Amino acid sequence: MSNYELMVIFTPVLSEEEYKSTQKKYLAFVKDNGGQVLHDKPWGLKSLTYPIQKKTTGLYWVLEYSAPSDFNEKLDIQILRDESILRSMVTKLDKYAVEYNARKRSGVPTGNKIAEV
After folding, report:
1. pLDDT per position in the chain (117 positions), as tens?
2. Which of 35, 55, 68, 99 has its CB surrounded by the most CB atoms within 10 Å?
3. Which pTM value belongs to this model?
């Protein structure tokens, strides 16, 4: 099983309940298909760099999971069917990215801060 990160931009017209229930739906989808959820973080409403479907804001959500390689095809089909998703991106994480994310979540300095003069 490989580690992946899914970033999703939901349409901003979702209510708080719909936003949370959609997240739970995808968390359950990962678990039901033999994957394991490592971490998920809703970022909330953010401005978009450019309009998508005439919308200038979106509800962001990031999910880190491990799953078999054939799972991403099933996930992609589910995402394409979901009308509440404006954009999505799945990234395969190497061991360094997994380690970096774990350190960042635990609060350990990651060494990427710019030194002040």
Report:
1. 889 999 999 999 989 999 999 999 999 999 999 889 999 999 989 999 999 999 999 999 999 999 988 899 999 999 999 999 999 999 999 988 888 888 888 877 666 666 555
2. 35
3. 0.82
- Give the residue from 111, 90, 84 showing the smallest Cα distance to 11: 84
| CA-wise closest residue to 27 among 15, 35, 19, 17 | 35
**Is domain 2-104 annotated with CATH 3.30.70.60?**
yes
Domain-by-domain residue ranges, the chain? Answer: 2-104
Identify whether the C-beta of residue 45 lies closer than 8 Å to the C-beta of residue 59: yes
